[in-house]
UniProtKB/TrEMBL annotation:
Organism (species): Kineobactrum sediminis
Entry GO CC: membrane
KW Nuclease (keyword) present: yes
Keywords: Endonuclease, Hydrolase, Nuclease
All residue ranges annotated as the Endonuclease/exonuclease/phosphatase domain in the record: 27-240
Positions of region (Disordered): 1-21
Protein name as it appears in the record: Endonuclease
Single GO MF descriptor: endonuclease activity
Protein's UniProt keywords contain Hydrolase: yes
Domain of life: Bacteria
Gene Ontology biological process terms in this record: GPI anchor biosynthetic process
Cross-referenced InterPro entries: Endo/exonu/phosph_ase_sf, Endo/exonuclease/phosphatase, GPI-anchor_lipid_remodeler
Length: 257
């Protein structure tokens, strides 16, 4: 049975063909429900930033799944970019679905939605997907963590438990971690599991100071570089700037040491 939360674009030609080579671009972007720093709701501007990114896989946070006069925002983003969309709503109401999502050019082989919610706090979650890349398997987990330190400690422990040796050739964790403390336990645990990554400030978008958005890759050698997307549109479209990672598959296909 087809997953109703996987949405194929009406016009897939809008996006380029899935990558077949060993190079891959991933990105994470908190779109702030398409409300920019000018307080305008502007989905077209958000799409323009996504097209500027030209990434093969994009993790999205703060996606309103129903917020366009009865039309689905995620369907709109998929259609305008030509990418396949995977919904991961965390807030479910009769008239509103809100949370995480993923846009991808890669074929999807598995989708798992993980509840990371803690009692009394805003519901949080993660999307775990298995993607086919360059003849191998990419395990990608996209998330948006809580605002309280104790929440993030619990959530990071749950996330790390998803990454088991030999489950995939490449593993990626990315999203808005909301982690302000550079030496806090969540970041130390993640660096210990994935190895350290460069710090790139993404928030607030106009003058970024904090590295709230992160991308980790295992094996670490497959992450060639990280960069913040700082176009004029991106500085206005959301309170976060997008973070991009450039991956290259090595000849060694075994995941792990």
């Amino acid at each position: 049975m087809q997953d109703k939360n996987i949405r194929k674009p009406v016009n897939p030609a809008a996006g380029k063909a899935p990558p077949s080579a060993s190079e891959l671009t991933v990105a994470t972007y908190n779109i702030h429900a398409c409300i920019g720093n000018d307080q305008r709701f502007d989905p077209e501007r958000t799409v323009s930033v996504l097209l500027e990114l030209d990434a093969d896989v994009i993790a999205l946070q703060e996606v309103e799944h129903h917020n366009m006069d009865g039309h689905d925002m995620l369907d709109y983003l998929a259609n305008e970019t030509g990418l396949t969309a995977i919904a991961g709503p965390t807030l479910l109401r009769a008239t509103r679905r809100y949370g995480n999502a993923l846009l991808t050019r890669l074929p999807v082989s598995l989708v798992n939605r993980i509840d990371l919610s803690s009692g009394g706090r805003e519901p949080r979650g993660a999307l775990e997907v298995m993607l086919d890349w360059d003849g191998g398997t990419l395990q990608l987990v996209a998330t948006h963590l809580g605002l309280m330190p104790w929440e993030r400690r619990l959530q990071v422990q749950q996330l790390i438990s998803l990454f088991e040796p030999e489950i995939a050739d490449t593993a990626v964790l990315m999203g808005d971690l909301n982690e302000w403390f550079l030496w806090g336990r969540p970041l130390r645990w993640l660096h210990a599991h994935f190895q350290a990554i460069p710090i790139r400030a993404t928030w607030p978008a106009k003058r970024p100071v904090f590295a709230l958005d992160r991308i980790w890759v295992d094996p670490r050698a497959q992450l060639e570089s990280l960069e913040v997307h700082t176009s004029p549109l991106a500085r206005m479209a959301s309170d976060h700037l997008p973070l991009k990672g450039y991956l290259r598959r090595s000849d060694h296909r075994n995941h792990g040491p």
